[in-house]
Amino acid sequence: MREQSFDAGRIARIAGLLYVVIILAGMGSEVAVRIPNIVPGDPAATAANLVENAGLFRLSFAADMAMALSDVALAVLLFWLLRPAGKVLSLMAMAFRLVQAALIGASLLFQHAALLVATGAPGFDSGDREALAAFFLDIHAHGFDLGLVFFGVACLILGTLVWRSGFLPRWLGGLVFAAGPVYLAGSFARFVAPEIHGPLQFAYVVPLIAETAFALWLLIRGVDTRVWKAGTGE
Description:
Layout: H1 8-37, H2 43-52, H3 54-82, H4 87-118, H5 126-165, H6 170-192, H7 205-221, H8 225-232
């Protein structure tokens, strides 16, 4: 199928749908599974929750994989959609988002390793299982935040592209841009200033609002196809 046969409005709505999947799957995994079952500073309680809720953690793995797979597809669609606003910047945004998806996907191995250890991987006594399960979950969290460093940069670029596009509202670009510093600050804090990582969590309401608004706008309103076509020369 030739590129000219794609419709920008349809691509925008597919991108919006993928973004909604990402938000729902990611938030569902974090809020419904990890937050209630991971007990900071108590490996025994965390390991017990892993065993008791093994099915939920497997479902969480599936949801996070759906999120990562959708993110890869979304990265490509947003590159195609936003290229009239700047081909090089659009390519950069896609590259940073793809690195984020790869790191988050890889970090899921550590969550699964925690589940395997807690539920009976041979060669460990009970104390070792509890400590290793908690350690693997901590590495998973660090891997997730490492991915969000790259995503924070992607948000800065993406916000700039939306702002200058002309076929999406500028306020939406401002919101997406504002999400970038939150991701960067929160993620770097986990590695270089862990004592302030917890207090920074309230700031994540900004990315939640920004990404939800962007996803819903793409899904419901799409883009101004007249302006988009003028930018591409099609």
